[in-house]
Design a protein that fits this description.
Helix 2 crosses helix 7 and helix 3 packs across helix 7. The chain is built from 7 helices and 3 strands; from the N terminus they run H-H-H-H-H-E-E-H-E-H. The protein is 44% helix and 5% strand.
Length: 183
């Protein structure tokens, strides 16, 4: 299955949960709780982000790239592909309140249609095949039954297992893309 098809499936699944359990999802335009804190994205997200950056107005792209560079340079960003799990955990703890460089002042994503897979599924509970893992967002599914949570759980089997060679953050990916494109 192609990665773009997985992204479309994630969007479709999220819409289906929003239609069948609207009371359980607080996600909406301007809700940006999940847009704070750096986290891992996969290498397959890089071309999607690159396409989004390319389609942006040059002034907006310049602002996003500048934010990404600032985050990358001031956060003591390690090479995720080369550091230990303990180093990663310390880095993610240290950057827990860092806003995504794509987040505008109104709490909206500037490249919503080109956001990574993890951004598309964040508010949903998670499962891996038949094994329910749990909730991710404190705002969602707080009064749902276990059956409702399990029905709304995104299956991680649709996602590629991240190998160490595939781990990036959004700011790191943007800086890499900007360097490659000469922005």
């Amino acid at each position: 299955m192609s990665y773009r098809r997985i992204l479309k499936q994630a969007d479709s699944f999220f819409r289906q949960v929003a239609q069948t359990q609207p009371q359980a999802l607080q996600c909406g335009k301007g809700c940006s709780l999940c847009c704070y804190g750096l986290f891992e994205i996969g290498a397959a997200d890089i071309p999607i982000i690159a396409e989004g950056l390319t389609k942006m107005h040059p002034a907006r792209r310049k602002m996003v790239v500048a934010r990404a560079r600032e985050i990358y340079e001031t956060s003591e960003h390690p090479a995720l592909r080369e550091c230990s799990p303990i180093e990663k955990e310390k880095f993610f703890d240290r950057t827990a309140s860092t806003p995504c460089p794509n987040l505008n002042e109104a709490g909206e994503c500037l490249m919503y249609e080109h956001r990574p897979l993890v951004c598309r599924t964040f508010g949903l509970p998670l499962r891996n095949g038949d094994r329910y893992i749990g909730d991710v967002c404190d705002l969602n599914f707080s009064e749902s039954t276990q059956t409702e949570k399990e029905a709304a759980a995104w299956d991680l089997q649709w996602e590629d297992e991240l190998g160490a060679e595939d781990e990036y953050t959004i700011p790191e990916a943007i800086v890499l893309i900007a360097r490659m494109r000469g922005w």
